[in-house]
Design goal:
Elements lengths: L10 E5 L6 E10 L4 E5 L5 E4 L4 E3 L6 E4 L37 E8 L4 E9 L24 H11 L6 E4 L13 E4 L23 H22 L23 H19 L4 E4 L10 E4 L1 H17 L6 H4 L1 H23 L16 H7 L6 E2 L2 E2 H7 L1 H21 L6 H19 L8 H4 L5 H14 L2 H8 L6 H30 L11 E3 L5 E3 L10 H14 L11 H25 L1 H9 L10
Parallel strand pairs: 7-10
Antiparallel strand pairs: 1-2, 1-5, 2-3, 3-4, 6-9, 7-8, 11-12, 13-14, 15-16
Length: about 625
């Protein structure tokens, strides 16, 4: 057995990956197989570090020399730093460089009654380089040199002779010494235990057009859903037509429709909270905590199908969904608005580490749209996870089934048309697969990074069940005849897309869960400074997002049964291309910040993003 130098619970100085910057961390454990220590930073970030990247606090010596002129002070005046807070330090390095601007804050506490200064702590707040994983909530002043008071005292003596600018000499094993700027700042939190990486990495770019974009999407998304729901009822349902005249106001609101939607959501809540199914752990949060989720989605859709079938057998007319599609959409929109308001209000009572970095811009409208709180919960009931996978997704299948019944009623058929059957089966398979593999959603961007606000609430409760069902809605009054070869070709396309989608997602999820799995030893990877590796084998060696490729092929198979007479049933295909290209862009930016030069190497290795030799 190899000798373990540092034990669980030890406080040590850990090097930030990809830089020569050290922060105080706590050892959580040691992996003897990988020869890696798991450590945790003040903000909850967990990383795996090798032994050479860890130093004992006693051996971590800080040396400093002044680079500025001395300045006289009045004997009776207390010393005051004229430098800025480290949190305001501006990084001047290009995103292509691997260097980082750093600051060292020497904190002072002043006793105004006794007119004496006491050096309380020496804090290193260097900004790590651009390949950080961008997960830090805020910078805290903390005590990182309790064991080096002699060195700190010498630095304080130098501080009296200058304007607060020092040079930090790197230790010999770090390479050539380079001067870095230091600042003086008051100590705010005396009892802080661990050093947090600096505020420079807290900033996350604003998505969807930033603050002005949030205003636009808040108005555009509901208007667009209203437009296509009204348009699909027209004789010529084309997206290029002038919007139809609005019906009277009373046509939008219906108490029965609102009651139907509320009943459906409460039914799905009941299925979610039943102690059936697996309790799955989510990915580590910034606090280091892992939330638990009840992943019983497959159970929920099976029970839902049984209940719906029983309702139809008992004479319940589900064609009501077709006849009141607009009213149901408006009712779902009102519920999503009320939910979004509740989420935004409650987010102001959440702890800082529970907030989403991307939804903490400080702008009320943007944070309301993007989502301010990352994982809002009522006790153990996770609101975001529930809405992502239950009422809208299973509701999608319910609406499709109602459209098939409506087609039989309107067209006087004994059975749905082949086109309607294909659309229903294809989309039902997609939803069932998602719920069967529900645990995989815990590693997606929505669950890990996006807050729960209007964007996801509206998308889950309105966008999915009332726009993804347009193919079935279109076919109610416009059945498209299909030949046997056409049906065979469409089914083949669907199966190929589904195979690529499921196979690539399975590879990714297995690799994320346990990269050291012997069954994955044949996969090629590119190591990164964070200790993780980028997968460049299997489908992930063909394109960067093979799961998106499979998704697009399946979307094409859903649209082909509707023919080419109108563009409206192709709306999902068009929208999905835009969505996946945008997600790819967000993913590229995030991974470049997180993995730095390793990501550039990955992009050179896997050249195409979604479609081989095309994009």
């Amino acid at each position: 057995m190899p000798t373990v130098k540092y034990q669980k619970g030890d406080m040590v100085m850990g090097r930030w990956p990809g830089s020569n910057l050290y922060y105080e961390v706590k050892v959580l454990g040691f992996d003897a197989n990988e020869q890696l220590y798991t450590v945790i930073y003040k903000d909850g970030t967990e990383l795996e570090l090798r032994e050479q990247d860890i130093k004992s606090i006693l051996g971590f010596q800080v040396r400093s020399r002044s680079r500025s002129r001395s300045r006289s002070r009045s004997p009776g005046r207390p010393r005051r730093s004229r430098s800025r807070s480290p949190a305001r330090t501006t990084r001047r390095t290009s995103s292509r460089t691997s260097a980082a601007v750093a600051t060292v804050a020497i904190t002072e506490r002043k006793d105004t009654k006794k007119d004496e200064d006491r050096l309380s702590s020496l804090q290193e707040t260097k900004a790590p380089e651009n390949n950080s994983n961008n997960k830090h909530e805020k910078t805290e002043e903390n005590n990182t040199a309790n064991k080096v008071n002699e060195s700190a005292a010498m630095v304080e003596a130098e501080a009296e002779k200058n304007q607060g600018r020092y040079n930090l000499r790197r230790r010999k094993d770090d390479g050539e010494s380079k001067p870095v700027e230091t600042k003086l700042e008051p100590l705010e939190k005396k009892d802080a235990k661990l050093a947090a990486p600096p505020a420079a990495i807290l900033s996350t770019p604003l998505d969807f057009g930033g603050k002005m974009g949030a205003y636009f999407w808040l108005l555009f998304l509901p208007a667009w859903v209203l437009f296509i729901v009204l348009q699909v009822n027209q004789e010529d349902p084309s997206l290029t037509n002038v919007p139809p005249p609005l019906p009277p106001l009373e046509a939008f609101l219906d108490a029965q429709a609102l009651g139907f939607v509320l009943l459906w959501i409460l039914f799905q809540v009941l299925l979610y909270i039943l102690p059936v199914g697996k309790l799955s752990e989510g990915m580590p949060l910034r606090s280091g905590k892992r939330l638990k989720y009840r992943t019983n989605g497959f159970f929920a859709i099976v029970v839902s199908c049984v209940v719906v079938a029983a309702a139809v057998h008992l004479g319940v007319d589900l064609t009501y969904i077709y006849s009141n599609f607009l009213q149901l959409a408006v009712a779902s929109f009102l519920i999503s608005i009320l939910l979004s308001i509740y989420l935004y209000v409650r987010s102001h009572y959440a702890a800082p580490e529970q907030l989403a970095l991307g939804g903490s811009s400080g702008n009320m409208v943007y944070d309301f749209f993007k989502g301010h709180e990352l994982n809002p919960r009522i006790k153990d009931f996770d609101l975001k996870f529930f809405c992502e996978m239950r009422p809208g997704l299973i509701g999608w299948c319910l609406v499709n089934f109602a459209m098939a019944l409506a087609e039989m009623k309107v067209q006087g058929l004994d059975a749905p048309s082949p086109s309607m059957i294909l659309v229903n089966i294809f989309q039902l398979l997609y939803v069932v697969d998602g719920l069967w593999n529900e645990e995989a959603i815990l590693t997606t961007m929505d669950l890990m990074h996006d807050g729960f606000g209007f964007m996801l609430a509206f998308g889950d409760l309105v966008w999915v069940p009332f726009t993804y069902t347009l193919q079935a809605y279109y076919l109610v009054t416009r059945p498209t005849p299909l030949s046997l070869p056409a049906i065979a070709a469409i089914i083949t396309l669907k199966l190929v897309g589904f195979y690529i989608f499921r196979k690539s997602n399975s590879e990714k999820n297995a690799f994320r869960r346990n990269p050291a799995d012997p069954n994955l030893s044949h996969l090629k990877t590119i190591p990164t400074a964070t200790g993780k590796s980028l997968l460049v084998s299997g489908w992930w060696g063909v394109v960067r997002h093979p799961n998106y490729l499979g998704d697009l092929l399946m979307a094409l198979a859903w649209s082909l049964p509707c023919g080419f007479s109108h563009i409206l049933p192709w709306y999902y295909m068009i929208y999905f291309i835009i969505l996946l290209v945008h997600r790819d862009s967000r993913d590229m930016s995030e991974c470049r910040r997180k993995y730095g030069s390793a990501w550039d190497e990955y992009c050179r290795t896997v050249r195409y993003r979604i479609i081989p030799r095309v994009y």
